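Page 37, continued from 36.
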């Protein structure tokens, strides 16, 4: 794992998002080998500006080796995966593409389905098309996806499921490029997730709102999301989807742990548009193509042209968030480990704590 990205040119779409920033930070640290170049690609110029300024003003002596040449190593490019032309102009001399650009808010995608399609589906199609039509020598494309793409019931999951298929099929149209996916669950306290919402509700005196008392979710820190991507880049065969083995918890336990002993009520408000009670990482149908890879599962592609003979038997069953739920004590300990328990006046999460 130490040299997965060494001397590679890495192109990160959605690079100013929670995952993109954590990925950039870990790439610059040399954890997986120091890249030759990192290109942060996104359409938000303000976020790019603040991210660029943050790296250009680093003062810690321990960071000098990493950042003394950041102007050469870390670059920023305004662009949008929805725009084929902007991708074509940006993807030259790129070895690895990590597609972290997404519309990921479940209710937003339900109300603005076309917007979700444009980013999550057309964006992926534009990456494949750019590589194919311009014969770009890209080594690997990683589609960052979600458990909501597994037997999807909402627009966000449906568009991400089609993104997975778009990339997997890219192995046929672009045989010199390896297309793989990394699928995982809820990232702890990422932008727009439930934990920052709980903070705001507690700070305003409550109540903390719960959609339903039996809802479960997979939970993982941003750092392990990056580990999943790095592991897939190192080990995945063309068309495979890598899935981390991660804990799941009752959302009521998450809320109780964050509330602590404060006199804050919980209020059940009902499931939001498009939500599931339990999430799946691997469906029953995928289980017959899912293989154990240590700390991960790998789902083999269904396309016969890129299937390979496996030496081990497939998992043969689904993998859901209600299969093995953490106890309240385990949930509280996980949140404590990443300093996510509430403190007075807190409404935001320092993403570096999760990295």
């Amino acid at each position: 794992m130490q040299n997965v990205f060494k001397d590679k040119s890495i192109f990160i779409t959605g690079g100013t998002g929670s995952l993109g920033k954590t990925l950039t930070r870990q790439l610059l640290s040399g954890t997986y080998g120091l890249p030759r170049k990192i290109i942060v690609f996104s359409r938000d110029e303000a976020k790019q500006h603040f991210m660029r300024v943050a790296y250009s003003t680093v003062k810690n002596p321990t960071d000098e080796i990493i950042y003394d040449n950041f102007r050469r190593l870390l670059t920023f490019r305004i662009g949008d995966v929805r725009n084929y032309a902007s991708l074509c102009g940006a993807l030259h001399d790129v070895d690895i593409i990590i597609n972290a650009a997404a519309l990921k808010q479940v209710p937003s995608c339900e109300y603005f389905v076309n917007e979700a399609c444009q980013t999550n589906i057309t964006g992926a199609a534009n990456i494949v098309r750019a590589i194919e039509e311009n014969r770009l020598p890209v080594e690997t494309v990683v589609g960052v996806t979600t458990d909501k793409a597994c037997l999807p019931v909402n627009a966000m999951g449906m568009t991400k499921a089609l993104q997975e298929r778009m990339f997997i099929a890219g192995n046929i149209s672009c045989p010199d490029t390896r297309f793989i996916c990394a699928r995982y669950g809820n990232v702890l306290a990422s932008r727009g997730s439930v934990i920052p919402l709980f903070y705001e509700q507690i700070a305003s005196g409550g109540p903390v709102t719960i959609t339903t008392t039996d809802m479960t979710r997979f939970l993982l820190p941003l750092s392990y999301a990056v580990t999943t991507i790095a592991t897939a880049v190192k080990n995945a065969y063309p068309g495979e989807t890598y899935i981390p083995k991660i804990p799941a918890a009752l959302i009521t336990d998450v809320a109780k742990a964050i509330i602590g002993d404060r006199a804050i009520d919980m209020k059940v408000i009902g499931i939001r548009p498009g939500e599931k009670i339990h999430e799946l990482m691997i469906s029953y149908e995928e289980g017959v193509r899912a293989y154990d890879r240590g700390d991960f599962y790998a789902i083999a592609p269904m396309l016969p042209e890129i299937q390979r003979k496996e030496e081990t038997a497939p998992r043969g069953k689904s993998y859901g968030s209600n299969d093995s739920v953490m106890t309240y004590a385990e949930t509280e300990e996980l949140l404590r480990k990443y300093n996510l328990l509430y403190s007075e006046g807190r409404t935001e999460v320092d993403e570096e704590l999760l990295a």
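The chain has one domain: 9-354. Flag for discussion at group meeting. The two ends are 17 Å apart (CA to CA).
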